[in-house]
């Protein structure tokens, strides 16, 4: 385990310690730093503009977590009942967005959402030209538009993981449910959902971290705009550190984001790992 721990310490633990240390200083990355204590944290927690990226990431949970997990459950249940020689191709097509680099996905969806993109052309073709707009430049719809991209990317991951979990459920449980007169819906809630409880927990945790720590898709598609409507902590940290050269403030935001993720993830992890039979 020593080589793996050495890599983890070098690329995770040490940068974490350094970031916590930087968060107590006012430093532009070049000149001498100045100790400010908790001033960076106080400014973030009392300034609405500083908190806005965190609220945006929480809003993205609906698209990055709820939609992929729900769609993944439905797709996995359908795939479980589907008997076709093309089943492997179906699974591959669902998982394909997870394989594509997020930068490439962001560029692709930027083209789709553009004023002359496929989406607007399709709306015009079916007679809904009044609905066309620059989706990523709309103050009301930019964040949901980015959320759709995240949902598209993560749905395949959830589907594949949940389909694997469903395949491990004892088929006798389904036979017993049918003998007792359970229909498809009752069978889903009584057998399938309890059987993939741990897999659902993994999906929820991974997608929540993806929403709260999102960077690639937002940076490529909107850079946090229009205005600050799609600004998330990852992009805000990048701007503060490398554009505005406020290393201390960026480090403080990174620490707050880490604590937020831990606060939300740990209870969820404990809940899904709990043995309900006890």
Keyphrases for this structure?
278 residues; mainly alpha; MetI-like fold; two-stranded antiparallel sheet; 2 strands; globular
What does this entry look like structurally?
The chain has 278 residues and is an all-alpha fold. The protein has one domain: MetI-like fold (Orthogonal Bundle), CATH 1.10.3720. 73% of the residues lie in helices and 1% in strands. The chain contains 14 helices and two strands. It has helices at 2-22, 39-46, 48-59, 61-81, 87-99, 102-113, 118-125, 142-167, 171-179, 184-195, 197-212, 216-221, 233-243, 247-273; strands at residues 25-26, 34-35. Strands 1-2 form a two-stranded antiparallel sheet. Helix 2 crosses helix 3 (48-59) and helix 8 (142-167) runs antiparallel to helix 11. The longest helix is centred in the C-terminal third of the chain and has 27 residues, at 247-273. The protein is globular, with a radius of gyration of 22 Å. The mean pLDDT is 89.
What's the layout of helices and strands?
Blueprint lengths: L1 H21 L2 E2 L7 E2 L3 H8 L1 H12 L1 H21 L5 H13 L2 H12 L4 H8 L16 H26 L3 H9 L4 H12 L1 H16 L3 H6 L11 H11 L3 H27 L5
Antiparallel strand pairs: 1-2
Helix pairs in contact: 1-14, 2-3, 4-8, 4-11, 5-8, 8-11, 11-14, 13-14
